Amino acid sequence: MKTIRRLLFRQVLHAVAFVALAFLLLFFFFDLLDQLDDVARYGKQGYTLGYALLHVVLLVPSHIYELLPIAVLIGAIYVMARMAESSEFTILRTSGLGPGRALATLLLLGAAFVMLTFLFGDYLAPDANRAAQLLRTRFWGEITVGRTGAWLKDKTPERVYSVNVGAMNASGDMSNVRIFEFGADGRMVATLQAAQAQFGDGRWLLKNVYERRFVHLAAGGDGGGGERPQIATRALAEMDWPTQLSSDMVAATLLSPDRMRTVDLFRYISHLNDNGQSAQRYEIEFWRKVFYPLSCLVMVVLALPFAYLHFRTGNIAGYVFLGVLAGISFFLLNNVFGFIGNLRNWEPWLTAAAPSFIYSLLSLAAFGWLVLRQ
């Protein structure tokens, strides 16, 4: 059994590596073409071809993370179909490779790809994407999400703060920061506007600050029982503002959540829940990052039924193409479920797990039908 396992592992690994390398070279070529336009546009700011190549290289871990499951599917289908066409898999079956052992062997190999996908998605790709983003801002300007900026929320037992960050540069400094302070009764207490802000230990250092503080006084002589506010203003060169909002939290609002680590997503979701903010989008992305590496197991289960098909000469390419279409449909369904789950407010973990569960059942059903038929 060790010899059979070694044979399957070696052939599948070689096929997956070849497919992944082909996809990576294709994406590298397209990314480099995009960067050549940026070299021509920002060459005067010092963005040379060397920086463009560095930026493209930093995108490689993210591409590996995205492409590894589909590479596993194509490589495994090719190996299974080729072994079926040459009757090699039939010989392995007569040598004691039953359906259960075949499934367990491929699942063991799929578990290794799961760990590799998790390593790239949770450790290598986020750091590389962060470095690529900072490299862009070094020559192109600040990170922003548009004119409205990014909104965050922080609170203490006495105060609630709504924070707007316009942009963040390569060194992590923020610009166009606005802070709205509310009291326990929901009334606005003060507003702060800062041209720049820097992260500190449990605080932000605000620079060029304009503060407006509202002092509510009892209205007198008008026959009403309301209050009239008075506005006290002041301008400060610097000001310390205590907060638990970290650079990772601000970056999470400025960057796409799929670029974050699983642990960072979990912490940010906890922060949103603690402050009474909607975390549906980030919860779905969190569970997608949890289940996405497991899609490698779904891919090998999808590939196994091809070993039990009977091929005619030259017919293998058609079956491989059908398998590729099945894999592409899986990733499309995964994205569709994510968008619909966010709109319909579905349970996040169920939204992320449903495509894998559906395709696993279909793969096992096809596998079982082929085994029983033969």
Keywords:
single chain; 374 residues; alpha+beta; 2 domains; 6-stranded antiparallel beta sheet; 11 helices; 6 strands; 18% strand
Structure notes:
The structure is a single chain. With 374 residues, the protein is of the alpha+beta class. It has two domains: 2-140 and 281-373, no CATH class; 150-254. The chain has eleven helices and six strands. The chain has helices spanning 2-42, 49-58, 60-85, 88-94, 99-140, 247-254, 262-274, 280-291, 295-303, 316-344, 348-373; strands spanning 150-155, 160-168, 174-182, 188-199, 203-218, 227-242. Strands 1-2-3-4-5-6 form a six-stranded antiparallel sheet, with helices on one face. Helix 1 packs parallel to helix 5 and helix 9 (295-303) packs parallel to helix 11 (348-373). The longest helix has 42 residues, at 99-140. It is elongated, with a radius of gyration of 28 Å. The two termini are 22 Å apart. The model has no long low-confidence stretch (mean pLDDT 83).
